[in-house]
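yo

u said u wanted the structure for the complex thing, so here. seqs first:
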Amino acid sequence: MIVAGCDVGSLTAKAVIMDENGLVASAVALAKRSPEESARAVIDRALKDAGLAMTDVAWCVGTGYGRKNISFVNSVESEIACHARGAVWQAPSARTVIDIGGQDCKAIKIDAAGGVARFLYNDKCASGTGRFLEIIADALEIGLEDLGGISMKSTKKITLSNQCVVFAETEIISLVNDGAEIPDIIRALHNAVANRAAALAKSITVEKDAVMTGGVARNAGMFEALKNALGCELLRVENPQINGAIGAALMALDAARGAGGGPVPRKERALVD
Amino acid sequence: MMVAGCDVGSLTSKAVIMGDGKIVASVIIKSKARPGDSADAAMGQALSKAGLSMNDIACCVGTGYGRDRISFVKEAVTEIACHAKGAQWLVPSARTVIDIGGQDCKAMRLDARGNMVKFTANDKCASGTGRFLEVMARVLHVELDDLGTLSASSRSAITLASACTVWAQADVIQHLNSGVPVADIAAGINSAMASRMSVIVNNIGFERDVVMTGGVAKNAGVVAALEKLLGLRIKRVTRADPQLAGAIGAALIAGERAQGGKS
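structre next:
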């Protein structure tokens, strides 16, 4: 039985195709003008990779910030629920999930049964989100993808005195002008983002094992920085960026089974404006 | 006897020369890369305006974020002390002072004698500081000084969804792209600024008269929005430019020092 999960975030959209045995295909694409467009494009790519068509999908669950605006999903689930579910599937021992996305940061506590026990969420302040990295990468004319590698070359520890992205940007420009090394600056940036995310996680108390998900987890420098900021072991998952979509697909599997196991008639959902 | 005050801020630097309790000359300049250079330039211009030289100044006090890098001052005094003193000189009935700087926001409560009894500040987050308006003016392609007047012609102000400067900036760009008139966006920006300031003011509680100092006091849109939020009229500063409050306070303290008086 084929199911799908679609996670439409602010910066990227993710789609996952699964069956009872696990992952079949996945795709990540930059978000387009509307959540619907992003979702269509990314699920079409995942389906194409799998050699499947939408009619083969028994159930599709939507999640993420744009989830209410996707017409082809059978149901929607909260990001928190999907991220928790995806994390436990990817790392069964996970009890604390820290997800850093393009515009938010989530800390989720998982109970023994794999459900959500507690969570905290920051989308009010850009500090501690992927946006902080994006803005500084832009200012320094460095590709977002290159930050991790560059930070690994750091030889000297510097600390940013500002937590606010706006103030930190000015501080970083002064550091560059004063001759500070770029790798040292990037490491300081990673530490600043990590400290903010760790503070969020610590306020729900971090329980072993902690796992980092979200697109930012692909940045090895950020992973190290978060590990240090938490002061405890941090688990790596194979697919951090599609974690939410995996959770959505797992819920789709539940729903499809609950609906009798066979392909479920798809009804185009009315779009919520 | 001539005394001087020099207030080196992140965005602008101010110098004031006072004699016999009156302002003899004052200057506001854009800050330079180095605080020391800003102070030299501001004070140099103020002196030449007054037709004086540094030797004529009995005492000079420095304040502001760059206060420790000024070569010519006798003493550096905290911004809070200078702002409280300056505000009280500008408006003797002031009991609550809200000062918006280039990268901070301060709120002070004064007693009847001008002593500071309570104080709070935000310099951790750009929202609610001059920087917020600076970023927004740049996005709107308008001069910082025009933001206030612009919002007066607004018919239906936008509401910014987030207080964070980064998110608000994205919000403003989206409004611009969807064709919302600049005046309506400016009005939304001024309201957001005022609403953030009101949080800080409410933190220490306010008592009349409420006075606003700093460059943002000249933004009529922010002042009007803040009056609405606090439900009172903010007493206008007329004795001098409200942006000079810190430098005036520094000069007044310099006067006390010159006379060997208390701080």
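Chain B has eight helices and nine strands. Helices of chain B lie at 35-50, 79-90, 130-140, 147-152, 165-177, 182-204, 220-230, 245-258.
cya
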